[in-house]
Structure formats: structure tokens, C-alpha cells
Design brief:
The chain is α+β, with helices and mostly antiparallel strands and about 270 residues long. It is built from seven helices and ten strands.
């Protein structure tokens, strides 16, 4: 192969019409190609020969090591049993109270738990009481909720107007004739049926709110067809017991909560 290539190159140089410098370049390139081919072949032969020489000892060493392992292998270690592992947490056994050997510790535990629960219950009770008391009316509000009046200076047949919770209140000292007249009124004649005794604590004293039950006007005292109260807004007539007798008002004058704190003192509210 090499001889044939050399002959081919000589024939190429002899019959070629190229200049001398181009021929030199072509010759140089061909020489490099030939050298690379020869070096590749030589290296491949060296590697293949080395592998052949080293494969047998390595294989023999591996086979010998495997056979020695098989002959001298030890049995696998046995896994420990569950009871042999133990536990890292011994607090249950260390802190456990023996109820038979140590009865005093059991009593102390119950006493401590009872004391703590009592403290919790007392705290909750105090909080509930404070919360409920915060929603109740204060002292100044309670003072305005009730009012006391002295009616000893009111002459029979006269009426005074006082103020309670921002509302007018009529207090009338009735005469025996007025009491007898109102007691004789039949319930069939009344729109809002109430007896005179149901509206008074003492027959000679009448206490009613001075607000008309029709539209909330303030009636005029000692006026109307029944000598009681008259509302000029829409013509409602009330008698001396504060009961509606004529006009558009649907109900009697309201009787506020009151009581006598003395012979001549009335507490409203």
C-alpha cells in the first residue's frame, strides 16, 4: 500500500503542470495525511495488545476473590427483638404514683386539682358579675329614673304638673264628689274599660301621664265635657279618672308606676 501510494505521488508530480510552490504544498499535505494514518494504526495495535495481556490476570483475581468470599462469608447479623430495644422515655414509670404505697400523694394531687379548679371558677364568676354589672344603669341614671314629690300643699279639686323622665305627670287631689262620680261610671260606657279603683292607690289621689294617647299631645287640665282633661289637637275628652270618654284617642291616660312613701309624699318610678 505504501509503495503504491509513493508511485502514485511520483506519477502525479511527473505529469502535473502546476507551479513548483503549489506542488510543494500538495506534497506537504499528503505527507501529513500519511503520517496521521500510520500513527492511528500503531496506537490501535498497542492498545489491543495491552488489553489482551492484562485481561487474564484481572479476571483471575476477580474469580479468586469471589471464591474466597463464598468460602469465608459470615452469617448475617440477627435483628434484635422488640423487647431488647428498650425505650428512651421512662417518665411513665418514674413519675407514676403508687396509690397503695403512697396514699398521701394521691390526696395531695386531688387537693391541688380541686384548688386550681376552684380558683378558675371564682375568676369566671367575678368576670361574669363585673360584665353584668357594667350593663346595669349607673347611680345618676337610677336617680333620674325615680322622683319623689310632696303633695301636701295641693288643695282638693286642684291638679299640679310635675316632670318625670322628661314627661309631664298630672297629680290631682280629688274631692269626694269626684270620687263618687267616677266610681259610678259603668264599664259599658268606656272605650278602654277600667274601673276607677284599678287606676288609683288612694281614691283621693290620681297620678297619670300628661300625654294624649292619640298623637302624644299634652291635654289641658280642667277642660272638656267631663271636667277632666281635654286635648285641643283632635278633640279627645278625658274624665277625672283619666279615662277616654270622647274623641279619637284609643286608650286611657297611662298610670305610671308610683307609691306613697308618706302621707303626703309620692315616689314616681
Amino acid at each position: 500500500g505504501e509503495a503504491g501510494g509513493d508511485t502514485q505521488y511520483r506519477s502525479f508530480f511527473r505529469h502535473s503542470n502546476l507551479p513548483i510552490h503549489q506542488l510543494v504544498e500538495v506534497a506537504t499535505m499528503n505527507a501529513f495525511r500519511l503520517a496521521s494514518r500510520l500513527s492511528t494504526r500503531a496506537s490501535s495495535q498497542v492498545l489491543s495488545g495491552g488489553l489482551r495481556s492484562t485481561a487474564t490476570p484481572s479476571l483471575r483475581l476477580a474469580q479468586g476473590f469471589q471464591s474466597s468470599n463464598i468460602s469465608t462469608s459470615l452469617p448475617a447479623p440477627k435483628a434484635p427483638a422488640l423487647h431488647e430495644l428498650g425505650s428512651v422515655d421512662h417518665s411513665f414509670e418514674d413519675d407514676r404514683i403508687d396509690r397503695v404505697a403512697e396514699p398521701e400523694r394521691r390526696a395531695f394531687t386531688y387537693l391541688l386539682l380541686s384548688g386550681v379548679r376552684f380558683a378558675y371558677a371564682s375568676t369566671a364568676r367575678v368576670l361574669v358579675v363585673k360584665f353584668v354589672s357594667s350593663m346595669s344603669a349607673s347611680a345618676d341614671v337610677l336617680a333620674l329614673a325615680s322622683a319623689e314629690f310632696d303633695v301636701g300643699g295641693i288643695q282638693p279639686g286642684k291638679t299640679i304638673t310635675v316632670k318625670w323622665r322628661g314627661k309631664p305627670v298630672f297629680i290631682r287631689h280629688r274631692t269626694p264628689a269626684e270620687i263618687a262620680t267616677e266610681a259610678s261610671v259603668s264599664l259599658a260606657q268606656l272605650r278602654d274599660e277600667e274601673t276607677d279603683d284599678d287606676r288609683t292607690l288612694k281614691p283621693e289621689w290620681l297620678v297619670v301621664l300628661g300625654i294624649c294617647t292619640h298623637l302624644g299631645c299634652v291635654p289641658i287640665n280642667g277642660a272638656g265635657d267631663y271636667n277632666g282633661w281635654f286635648c285641643p289637637c283632635h278633640g279627645s275628652h278625658y274624665d277625672v279618672s283619666g279615662r277616654i270618654r270622647k274623641g279619637p284617642a284609643p286608650l286611657n291616660l297611662e298610670v305610671p308606676p308610683y307609691k306613697f312613701t308618706g302621707d303626703t309624699k309620692i315616689l314616681i318610678g
